[in-house]
């Protein structure tokens, strides 16, 4: 390895949520194959990288990867005291009916903190001799958005950085677009890229195709054997991922109730976020847990092994993704195309448009369980042709992602070079 070899730091702030772990691994692999030294930071990075190297031997020309510590050094007594005082002041304001200016700007108090991002980068870089040109934050959707926090983090951010935004806002209200250290953002919404570029010409914006990990285990997984035994030859319908309010749980469970039990078998796999449910969803979910029907396989926890998750889809007949008020893409489209499984989605928003364009399934009203069941029946007897899935896979391929990603990286690096030579 030479001193001039490019180096990047890949930072994933969340672990064991949806497909973020698999995306983190995919990006680490892509940079390695491209010849980058990769510094990896995530709550579970050591485990993920070890699994990656065990399953996929690095490409002959691939670079090295180094896992940086996730933990932060212990805070000083004065820092802890100041943090405690601020916490008590916030609580006092809430008890007295007052709201701070920061809370007015950014009411989502459970969001990730910008300063923690900067501090983790600072500490991680003290533990390595490698010098990355920039950092890539894999998930920007749950960060606090107010100026106070981002300006503070920007003042000691040790690296230029870029990020990935899964659900970009229309108005670009997030304060990180106005700080110096941010060089660009990858968006999963192609239509917003041009609008973002027009509003912030000092940043790099690019579209990122929503690709998926389609790896399978060497042998049929035990959970699939269990499912196939329970299904007894019935048509298997899969619904999975992080189960929050957008998953439309009440309507999904109504489809399970309406379906002919000797014809259909349903699978629900994934961590359930009950706190996000409305009252109708919550009551439906509690009822289904209490009186679990014979034609429903329910696993209410995160399935860490992506290949096993894929194996379940691979052995299913149809993918169910009729999400509620869900305006963006979903990894389920890629899974359906990868394993050539018809998919049912809501007929509005981006997923509905893509399914109609590529003809890989059917779109139905998000509020119509009988229409959902009718779509399942139609797809069971008239599935899409293989060329439809192939067309989708081509447009959302890893090759397409590589081009977008490394064109974006080159543009960000050019921005950084121009700034340092001024």
Determine the fraction of residues in helical runs and give it as a percent range: 40-55%
How many helical elements? 16
Ranges where pLDDT stays below 50 over 5 or more residues in a row are 76-108
Mean pLDDT: 87
Could you describe the largest sheet, including whether it forms a barrel? 7 strands, parallel
The helix-and-strand class reads alpha/beta
| Helix and strand run | EHEHEHHHEHEEHEHEHEHEHEHEHEHHH
Number of strands: 13
Give the strand order of the largest sheet, numbering strands 1, 2, ... along the chain.
Answer: 3-2-1-4-5-6-7
Sheet-strand content, in percent, reads 5-15%
Morphology: globular
Radius of gyration: 23 Å
**Ends distance:** 30 Å
Walk me through what this model shows.
- This protein has 422 residues and is α/β, with parallel strands linked by helices.
- β12, α13 (349-358) and β13 (361-364) form a beta-alpha-beta unit.
- The protein is globular, with a radius of gyration of 23 Å.
- The longest helix is centred in the last third of the chain and has 23 residues, at 398-420.
- The strands form two sheets. The protein has a seven-stranded parallel beta sheet, with helices on both faces. It has a six-stranded parallel beta sheet with strand order 10-9-8-11-12-13, sandwiched between helices.
- 40% of the residues are buried.
- Residues 76-108 have low confidence and may be disordered.
- The protein contains 16 helices and 13 strands.
Keywords:
422 residues, alpha/beta
Task: Characterize this entry briefly.
The protein contains 16 helices and 13 strands.
């Amino acid at each position: 390895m030479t001193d001039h070899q490019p180096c990047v730091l890949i930072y994933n702030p969340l672990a064991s949520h949806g497909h973020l772990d698999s995306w983190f691994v995919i990006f680490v692999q892509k940079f390695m194959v491209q010849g980058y030294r990769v510094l990896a930071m995530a709550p579970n990075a050591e485990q993920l990288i070890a699994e990656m190297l065990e399953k996929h031997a690095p490409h002959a020309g691939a670079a090295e990867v180094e896992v940086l510590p996730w933990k932060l050094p212990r805070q000083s007594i004065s820092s802890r005291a100041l943090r405690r005082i601020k916490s008590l002041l916030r609580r006092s304001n809430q008890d007295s009916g007052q709201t701070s200016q920061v809370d007015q700007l950014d009411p989502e108090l459970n969001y990730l903190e910008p300063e923690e991002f900067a501090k983790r980068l600072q500490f991680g870089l003290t533990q390595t001799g490698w010098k990355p040109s920039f950092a890539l934050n894999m998930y920007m959707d749950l960060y606090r958005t107010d100026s106070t926090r981002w300006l503070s983090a920007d003042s000691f951010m040790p690296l230029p950085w870029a990020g990935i935004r899964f659900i970009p806002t229309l108005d670009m209200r997030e304060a990180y677009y106005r700080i110096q250290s941010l060089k660009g953002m990858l968006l999963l919404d192609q239509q917003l890229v041009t609008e973002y570029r027009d509003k912030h010409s000092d940043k790099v914006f690019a579209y990122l195709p929503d690709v998926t990990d389609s790896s399978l285990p060497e042998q049929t997984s035990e959970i699939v054997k269990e499912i196939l035994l329970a299904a007894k030859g019935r048509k298997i319908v899969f619904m999975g991922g992080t189960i929050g309010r957008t998953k439309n749980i009440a309507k999904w469970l109504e489809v399970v109730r309406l379906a002919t039990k000797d014809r259909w078998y349903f699978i629900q796999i994934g961590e359930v976020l009950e706190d996000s449910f409305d009252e109708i969803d919550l009551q439906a979910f509690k009822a289904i847990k209490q009186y679990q029907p014979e034609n429903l396989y329910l696993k209410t926890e995160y399935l860490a092994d992506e290949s096993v998750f894929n194996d379940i889809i691979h052995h299913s007949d149809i993918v169910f993704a009729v999400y509620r008020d869900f305006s963006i893409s979903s990894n389920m489209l890629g899974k359906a195309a990868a394993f050539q499984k018809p998919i049912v989605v809501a007929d509005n928003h981006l997923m509905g448009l893509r399914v109609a364009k590529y003809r890989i399934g059917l779109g139905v009203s998000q509020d119509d369980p009988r229409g959902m069941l009718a779509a399942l029946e139609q797809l069971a007897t008239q599935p899409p042709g293989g060329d439809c899935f192939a067309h989708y896979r081509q447009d959302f391929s890893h090759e397409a992602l590589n081009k977008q990603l490394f064109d974006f990286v080159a543009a960000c690096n050019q921005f950084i070079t121009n700034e340092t030579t001024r």
